[in-house]
């Protein structure tokens, strides 16, 4: 594949900021591991090879989210899980086969796989064999922030290639748990080159989308976690039955405070301040002076959080990427090319 060498498109305000971030990230990565030796991601990578790529992803993603408003969160979480396991290489999308039955997607249930295939099919229709599934996940997550979070469109670097390996056992080692404490969350993110600021900033994705009672029941039964708001806990207990009482595992909105649970917003930080979040891993963000100050700042300043979330999402999208001639561009996102 040829590398686009054109400069980034004409500027919006955030663009120079993000560009600066990209250099910082690239510089940080170039000092360390071997996977950073291949060429870095670039803005508008498909500018020459497939000029309609990003607009096509945006159009289809927008259509999917307007049809089912819960899907923005699904795309956002897919990107997170993809990047944290073997890097942003679309390994999360690979279906099991008889020779590799134990793939990543079997470890934790995520939503949006069929929808990613729909986006890919639309992109293949305009530029067959050019646009990677890893880039589609990145673009769709960015577009989800725009559609579900009213972010101003921001640039997402691209040029990722698709991996050929997907392993169930990589997931549990790399994806943090909702019962993790702050030091473990910080070291989990650090292992991916993300810092404590990124942890606080990206956790704002829990302002939208879904969860399950089983992930917060430990904070409700047998006794209510003292860091949880008592009013909130009482309401949650009416929805989440005590484990072992045959009530199943109901689905919850991550954000039970917002009028609209499908909006990506800084309201998550207000919920943290008032103890109205689901997971231990969420509430732990108020467990140190530094992170609590950051939570308070984001709660008070939506624009600050949005700008930093966009920057952190771009940074997350650089984790262990395959570029240049590494990997492949899959034809179907759920299967490795034969
Ligand atoms: C900090 C550590 C994190 C932990 C422990 C964590 C854990 C979880 C858990 C347990 C759920 C509920 C899953 C379910 O029941 O289906 C969830 C949902 C979600 N997470 Fe996270 N997460 C973390 C960070 C992130 C990050 C960094 C992002 C994205 C930037 C993210 C995006 C989401 C989204 C959007 C959902 C809702 C998914 C849906 O509606 O299907 N999470 N997370
Ligand atoms: C945009 O998406 C809609 C479906 O939501 C599709 O019907 C239409 O053809 C798409 N247009 C372009 C230019 O991709
Ligand atoms: C608990 O939540 C309620 C809203 O349900 C709020 O009014 C109250 O201030 C919260 N309590 C604390 C200690 O933050
Ligand atoms: C942090 O959480 C632990 C329990 O997990 C608690 O004992 C400690 O007091 C908390 N510290 C702060 C500063 O909130
Ligand atoms: C919170 O905002 C204040 C005022 O702008 C700033 O001085 C402080 O450094 C911020 N704290 C964090 C942790 O970002």
From TrEMBL:
The keyword Signal applies. Residues 1-36 form the signal peptide. Its cofactor is Ca(2+); heme b. CDD domains: secretory_peroxidase (cd00693). Heme b binds at residue 206. Belongs to the peroxidase family. Classical plant (class III) peroxidase subfamily. Removal of H(2)O(2), oxidation of toxic reductants, biosynthesis and degradation of lignin, suberization, auxin catabolism, response to environmental stresses such as wounding, pathogen attack and oxidative stress. PROSITE patterns: PEROXIDASE_1 (PS00435), PEROXIDASE_2 (PS00436), PEROXIDASE_4 (PS50873). It catalyses: 2 a phenolic donor + H2O2 = 2 a phenolic radical donor + 2 H2O. SUPFAM superfamilies: Heme-dependent peroxidases. GO terms for cellular component: extracellular region. Keywords: Calcium, Disulfide bond, Glycoprotein, Heme, Hydrogen peroxide, Iron, Metal-binding, Oxidoreductase, Peroxidase, Secreted, Signal. This is Peroxidase. Ca(2+) binds at residues 82, 85, 87, 89, 91. GO terms for biological process: hydrogen peroxide catabolic process; response to oxidative stress. Substrate binds at residue 176. Disulfide bonds join 50-127, 83-88, 133-333, 213-240. Binds 2 calcium ions per subunit. Its EC number is 1.11.1.7. Its main location: secreted. GO terms for molecular function: heme binding; lactoperoxidase activity; metal ion binding. The active site is at 81 (proton acceptor). The record marks 77 as: Transition state stabilizer. It comes from Paspalum notatum var. saurae.
């Amino acid at each position: 594949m040829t590398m686009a060498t054109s400069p980034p498109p004409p500027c919006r305000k955030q663009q120079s900021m993000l560009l600066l971030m990209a250099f910082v990230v690239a510089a940080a990565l170039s000092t360390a591991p071997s996977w950073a030796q291949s060429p870095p991601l670039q803005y508008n990578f498909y500018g020459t090879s497939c000029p309609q790529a990003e607009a096509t992803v945006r159009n289809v993603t927008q259509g999917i989210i307007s049809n089912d408003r819960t899907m923005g969160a699904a795309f956002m979480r897919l990107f997170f899980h993809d990047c944290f396991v073997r890097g942003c290489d679309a390994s999360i999308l690979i279906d099991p086969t008889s020779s590799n039955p134990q793939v990543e997607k079997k470890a934790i249930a995520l939503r949006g796989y069929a929808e990613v295939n729909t986006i890919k099919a639309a992109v293949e229709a305009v530029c067959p064999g050019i646009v990677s599934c890893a880039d589609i996940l990145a673009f769709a997550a960015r577009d989800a922030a725009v559609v579900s979070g009213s972010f101003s469109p921001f640039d997402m670097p691209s040029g990722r290639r698709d991996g050929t390996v997907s392993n169930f056992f990589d997931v549990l080692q790399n994806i943090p748990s909702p019962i993790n404490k702050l030091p473990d969350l910080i070291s989990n993110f650090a292992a991916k080159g993300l810092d404590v600021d990124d942890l606080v900033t990206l956790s704002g994705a829990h302002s939208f989308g879904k969860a399950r009672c089983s992930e917060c029941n430990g904070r409700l039964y047998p006794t209510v976690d003292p860091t949880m708001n008592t009013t909130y806990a009482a309401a949650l207990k009416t929805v989440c039955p005590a484990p072992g009482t045959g009530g199943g595992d109901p689905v919850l909105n991550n954000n039970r405070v917002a009028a609209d649970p499908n909006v990506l917003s800084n309201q998550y930080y207000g919920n943290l301040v008032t103890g109205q979040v689901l997971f231990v891993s969420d509430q732990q963000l108020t467990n140190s002076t530094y992170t609590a100050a950051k939570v308070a700042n984001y709660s008070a300043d939506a624009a600050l959080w949005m700008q930093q979330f966009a920057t952190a999402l771009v940074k997350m999208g650089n984790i262990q990427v395959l570029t240049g001639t590494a990997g492949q561009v899959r034809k179907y996102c759920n299967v490795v090319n034969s």
